[in-house]
């Protein structure tokens, strides 16, 4: 779990340090975004390979190697003196970090019998859900108090302790060295995922399809995915993707819902800090501090729900969690330019509580009917869908925020006229400074309107998925047996 927390923190901790890195590495605003993009793309490409690597080398060896590689790459990020050095180090971080979260989830499922898997998923969920929430806060504090390089150096002691724990306590390895790798399927899927993540990460900045880069990445993603789908359908049991996963209804349903959770959680995290900093004068540290309490709500919910799993219908917990999350987004829809800190903190705590109620039963339900032999493949795909959901969610809300700001500004400015008596009384129309200030106020209102539209969109999406919870079926005799649960680790 230390390894999981280390990796999930790094998905957001570097964001607030980008302006400081930009000056130190002599990079332009466009170039510095590759510090984030390189990590995301490398992780997306490598994550589906987790199952084959675990079978080939064993879970214990793979987890230890991933921790070592991720920790060393973090140190290389901290000492990077140029942008190419930083991008290469971040690529290595993504490659080695991709396996940490799916391996931790599958290990926790493997070493716990079915009646304790709810609590195991609560432990796992703490690292996965709380890490991205605390990342900006910790990153802001380290950057303001020490130096931006410490957002990477902080991983060194954590990685050392995690490596000691993995080598000391993890069960003995089981390997299948004769398991072959479907190289063509892996390359096709890697190209598709890498191109998709790159276009989602850079699309809003490059104005989407007005950019040649985005058009090329889209073409690569579509063609590579088409090759992968056709190859998977015709390659039989030798294909890179285990088609048996799609035969489990709960697993497929769980993929859809974790995609939605990833989109809503990360999109909210992507909206709040810039809103607080650009409209309300918060610095990076204070914006992180008022956002961080949502993690408290998540921790409380996970501790509560881990004790309710097995006693309460999982679908009831999921409905409650999504409803509470929708309530928090409804509160965010009513934000104004004048907000007390409590008006920011409490909706975040409520949303964190709602998502905490969702995440644990969702993880438990998704794997409740999946055979243990498919668990490593399933956890890798599960983490990948959450990652893709977060990328799509962030891309959508950022694009809508930009475009809706322009629309709202045009609409608001259209109601202002030099012939309006109120405008004439309040603004000196002969003063360029006064007109500039008026435009600034209109812009602030337009930006706030765009943020509210994004919160409304996420509110509607959260409400719309609630009826789809009826697709979930409770675990029954078809669920994985206790023998299946331990098969990967015995």
TrEMBL record:
Name of the protein in question: DHA2 family efflux MFS transporter permease subunit
Superkingdom classification of source: Bacteria
Membership in a protein family: Belongs to the major facilitator superfamily. EmrB family.
Compartment(s) where it occurs, according to its Swiss-Prot or TrEMBL record: Cell membrane
UniProt keyword terms in alphabetical order: Cell membrane, Membrane, Transmembrane, Transmembrane helix, Transport
This protein's record includes keyword Glycoprotein: no
Pfam family, one: MFS_1
Principal localisation: membrane
Annotated signal sequence range: none
InterPro entries registered for this protein in UniProt: EmrB-like, MFS, MFS_dom, MFS_trans_sf
PANTHER family the record matches: MAJOR FACILITATOR SUPERFAMILY MULTIDRUG TRANSPORTER MFSC
Transmembrane annotation, as ranges: 32-55, 62-81, 87-109, 121-142, 148-171, 183-200, 212-230, 251-272, 284-302, 314-332, 344-367, 455-472
Organism in which the protein naturally occurs: Paraburkholderia dinghuensis
Ranges for domain Major facilitator superfamily (MFS) profile: 1-477
NCBIfam families reported for this sequence: efflux_EmrB (TIGR00711)
Membrane topology label: Multi-pass membrane protein
Gene Ontology, cellular component aspect: plasma membrane
GO MF terms held by the record: transmembrane transporter activity
SUPFAM superfamilies, sorted: MFS general substrate transporter (SSF103473)
């Amino acid at each position: 779990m230390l390894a999981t927390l280390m990796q999930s923190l790094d998905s957001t901790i570097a964001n607030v340090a980008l302006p400081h890195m930009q000056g130190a590495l002599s990079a332009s605003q466009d170039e510095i975004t590759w510090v984030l993009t390189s990590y995301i793309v490398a992780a997306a490409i490598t994550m589906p390979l987790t199952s084959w690597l675990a079978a080939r080398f064993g879970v214990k060896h793979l987890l230890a190697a991933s921790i070592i590689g991720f920790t060393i790459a973090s140190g290389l990020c901290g000492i990077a003196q140029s942008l190419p050095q930083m991008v290469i180090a971040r690529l290595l971080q993504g490659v080695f970090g991709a396996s940490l979260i799916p391996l931790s989830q599958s290990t926790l499922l493997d070493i716990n019998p079915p009646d304790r898997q709810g609590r195991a998923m609560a432990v796992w969920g703490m690292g996965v859900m709380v890490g991205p929430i605390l990342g900006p806060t910790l990153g802001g504090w380290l950057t303001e108090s020490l130096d931006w390089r410490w957002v990477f150096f902080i991983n060194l002691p954590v990685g050392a302790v995690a490596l000691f724990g993995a080598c000391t306590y993890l069960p003995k390895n089981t390997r299948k060295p004769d398991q072959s790798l479907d190289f063509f399927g892996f390359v096709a899927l890697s190209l598709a995922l890498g191109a998709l993540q790159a276009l989602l990460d850079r699309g809003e900045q490059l104005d989407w399809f007005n950019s040649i880069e985005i058009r090329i990445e889209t073409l690569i993603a579509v063609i590579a995915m088409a090759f992968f789908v056709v190859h998977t359908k015709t390659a039989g049991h030798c294909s890179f993707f285990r088609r048996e996963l799609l035969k489990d209804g709960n697993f497929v349903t769980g993929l859809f819902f974790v995609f939605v959770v990833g989109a809503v959680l990360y999109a909210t995290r992507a909206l709040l800090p810039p809103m607080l900093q650009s409209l309300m004068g918060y610095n990076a540290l204070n914006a992180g501090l008022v956002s961080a309490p949502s993690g408290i709500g998540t921790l409380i919910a996970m501790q509560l729900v881990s004790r309710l799993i097995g006693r309460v219908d999982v679908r009831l917990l999921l409905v409650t969690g999504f409803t509470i999350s929708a309530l928090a987004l409804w509160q965010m829809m009513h934000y104004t330019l004048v907000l007390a800190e409590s008006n920011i903190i409490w909706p975040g705590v409520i949303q964190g509580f709602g998502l905490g109620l969702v995440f644990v039963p969702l993880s438990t339900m998704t794997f409740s009917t999946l055979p243990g032999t498919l668990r490593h493949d399933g956890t890798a795909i599960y983490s990948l869908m959450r990652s893709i959901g977060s990328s799509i969610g962030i891309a959508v809300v950022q694009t809508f925020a930009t475009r809706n700001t322009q629309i709202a500004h045009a609409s608001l400015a259209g109601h202002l006229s030099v012939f309006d008596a109120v405008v004439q009384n309040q603004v000196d129309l002969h003063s360029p400074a006064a007109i500039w200030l008026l435009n600034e106020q209109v812009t602030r209102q337009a930006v706030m309107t765009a943020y509210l539209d994004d919160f409304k969109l996420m509110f509607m999406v959260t409400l719309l998925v609630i009826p789809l919870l009826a697709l979930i079926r409770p675990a029954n005799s078809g669920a994985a047996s206790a023998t299946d649960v331990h098969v990967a680790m015995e």
